[in-house]
Amino acid sequence: MMASSLARRALQSTYTCRLGTNTPRHIHTSFSTQESWFGKLFRGSNATESPETSKLSEQEQEKSKLQTPTQGTELKYTTSEFVAEPAQPAGVESTTASSATLQARKKIKRTRLTPARKQRRFDEHISFMEPRLGRNPSIHRPLIRKTTWIRVLGHCQTEEQLKKVMEMIPLWRDMGHDFDTTFSHAFIRRCLYLKKPGFALELFGNFGKYNVPLTQTGARELLNTIYYTQPIDSVIVLTSLFNVYKLQPVAEDLSCCAMVIAACLKSQNKDAQVIADALLPHLKTLVKRQGEAPLPKGDEVGQNLPLVWGIRAVGRIDELLPTKGSDNEGGMRRWLHSWRVKSGHVPTVAEATV
User: Fold this and answer.
1) Residues of the chain with confidence (pLDDT) below 70
2) 349, exposed or middle or buried, with CB in 10 Å at 0-12, 13-18, 19+?
3) What does the pLDDT look like over 163-192, one tens digit per residue?
4) φ/ψ (deg, to 5) at 154
5) Residues 6+ apart with CB under 8 A from 63
């Protein structure tokens, strides 16, 4: 009885054993067989068994001959089952699966969606979103996720599709939801990708209707696209939004200040010229504060885009300002050109004559 009790206690614990040449061949995953084997070990092989138990043990022993692991296999088992795993040296980790996964990933060829597939996915998103928008949506669940708006923007290929998304934005606001800066940046980039910056100006110019925030980063990116390609009116509209969205004033941001001055000088509009003359002293202060600034190259460009845009705009101002005139014109031109030479943006006179 004591031996049987010890056997049962041993069965209730989890441990590992290593099969050798002397291990009984009739050990397998059955709980009843474990108990039978331990019972024979402690009670002796001549212990009496009922005919049904004996018959069951013989069947399980025959079955175990097919299931018994081979030598050198480590067994981890509990009282209910054995889990056979190949034995590995201590401190050595299997890297076969991870290396195979990495190789498989390298073989995957990323392919862009065709225009037809983009159109199909755009239509699927619109069909899903439309009945779930508005004050009284016809379908309530599943809900529209914010990531769905990003996806539908990513599949916009035409002006009509972008208009469709803009029509749906107020319905999202009517439900009490708002948009975050991620959507704001995604919308700006989609407008620039489709060469429709006017849509972005319309969206951010009517916050009461669309309720989409404008950030300093988004405003710079949009201004960098339109200041030298769009009419001066578009630039003035955008700069007026800086105060509406509580952004850093144009006169305190080097890249924005330089881009607005370049746009005003290029337009040759009298009112725009007044704005340029008012901003030039602020630009000089910002450039002095910046100090010599070599043009970023390589991987540094993406990390310093505002500086790159500002340097490019200063170069255009250098070309547009007259060489003679008041301090706000001729004197400023000479000062800016000297700063560009010191920063390495343009070659010196000696370098240019070589």
Assistant:
1) 1-111, 323-330, 348-354
2) exposed
3) 999 999 999 888 888 899 999 999 999 999
4) -65, -20
5) 28
- CB atoms inside a 10 Å sphere around CB 301: 12
Q: Would you list the DSSP string of 6-51? A: HHHHHHTS-EEEE--TTS-TT--S-HHHHHHHHHHHHH-TT----H
**CB count in 10 Å sphere of residue 58:** 11
Distance CA 166, CA 155 (A): 14
With the C-alpha atoms ordered 79, 85, 89, 93, is the resulting torsion angle positive or negative? negative
Q: Which residues contact 23 (CB under 8 A, 6 or more apart)?
A: none
Can you tell me the distance from the alpha carbon of 168 to that of 184, in angstroms, rounded to the nearest whole number? 15
Side chain identity at 201, as an amino acid letter? Answer: L
pTM of the model: 0.64
Which backbone phi and psi does 18 adopt, to 5 degrees?
Answer: -120, 125
Sheet holding 82-86, edge to edge: 15-18, 73-77, 82-86
Condensed to tens digits (0 to 9), the pLDDT of residues 62-96 reads: 555 545 444 444 444 444 433 344 444 454 444 45
